[in-house]
Amino acid sequence: MPSDPKMRASDADRDRTAALLREHHAAGRLTAEEFNERLDQTYAAKTLGELDQLLSDLPGIDLYELPDASLRRSRHGPHGGLPWGSAGLVAQRHTGHLPGAWRAAWGSCISVSLIAFLVWLLSGHPSSLWFLWIAGPYTLILLGRWLTGGSPRGPSRGDSG
Questions:
Q1: Distance between CA atoms of 99 and 92, rounded to whole angstroms?
Q2: CB under 8 Å to 4, separation ≥6 — which residues?
Q3: What does pTM read for this prediction?
Q4: Sign for the pseudo-dihedral over CA of 27, 30, 33, 34
């Protein structure tokens, strides 16, 4: 960002500040009340100086160089498990590929579904679509975990329901 605090802030500047505030809230540096208050001020800010002031008492972080631990949030994290804006999806969006655990989970789901389909196809009973009882729930559970930001392996040991 330019160093002139009187320069008008863009929507991208406000979005970047909001993302930084989310990370600080997730790290426990801001309470929910402080986070909501600063987020409101972020979207009301007109200058870069106002945005800088909202982050002045927080350490600097780089959204593109987050530690691996921040990418493994549980579904019950400080954001209520919403994946939008979370570090995990930001990292996936920028790297263009899924982490190894998700690649393995989706590969397993596709393999099991394909085997069930081939057995059904070769069984000679096309009127009974039993393979969908295997492929359907497996795919829906995995898709639900992926969309809610959960782990493909289920809740971590530290989660308590």
A1: 8
A2: 48
A3: 0.41
A4: negative
